[in-house]
Model the fold of this input.
Amino acid sequence: MSELIREMLALPEGHDKLLLHSCCAPCSGEVMEAIQASGIDYTIYFYNPNIHPQKEYMLRKEENMRFAEQHGIPFIDADYDTDNWFERAKGMENAPERGERCTMCFDMRFERTALYAWENGFSAITSCLGISRWKDMKQITGCGERAAAPYPGMVFWDYNWRKKGGSARMIEISKREHFYQQEYCGCVYSLRDSNLHRKSQGRGLIKLGVKYYGDEDDE
Ligand code: SF4
Done:
């Protein structure tokens, strides 16, 4: 484990029960261990209808479930309502990553997270999405705060998981656990664009389910 010592975390404004939106095991590994090390009561909420195809969705979900079980953390396996996701993505098929389609995608996932939190006694929500260096923290925080706003007293915890060694520990944990290493963000459009980019570099198309952290050609 990294030499960097984790700081003790505390939920904002005295909140005591957290719902963590998770997208996959690599992004949530460090976040989960950091939250757990701070003694915060939390549950994982897996709601990611953006992930395409279903084979990839199952790979990411089952690995995340396994890791949660290993840590004794409750895992809520929410709907895979892809029809709604595609409906909301209409007209944004060619938007770049970190653009309007991603705002919609975060909004949709966090809206459902906040609703579940409200109905089940969680007063704080957060997401591990921001630990990825490919993501825009400000965009994620904006979506999270918008999702929590309709519910009186609910907060979106905007902690920056990348800081204080978080990014390095994310990689360490992923290698330690030999997590599946996805090679695109998740939706069919990000798969298309990642493959186009690879093609322009003379690389082969993405193969699902073959790359794992810690393997020889890692990184
Ligand atoms: S690129 Fe990622 S965040 Fe953006 S819409 Fe696709 S799956 Fe969602």
Remarks:
- The pocket of iron/sulfur cluster is lined by residues 50, 97, 101-102, 105, 185-187, 189-190 (CB under 6 Å).
- DSSP finds seven helices and five strands in the chain.
- The chain has a mean pLDDT of 95.
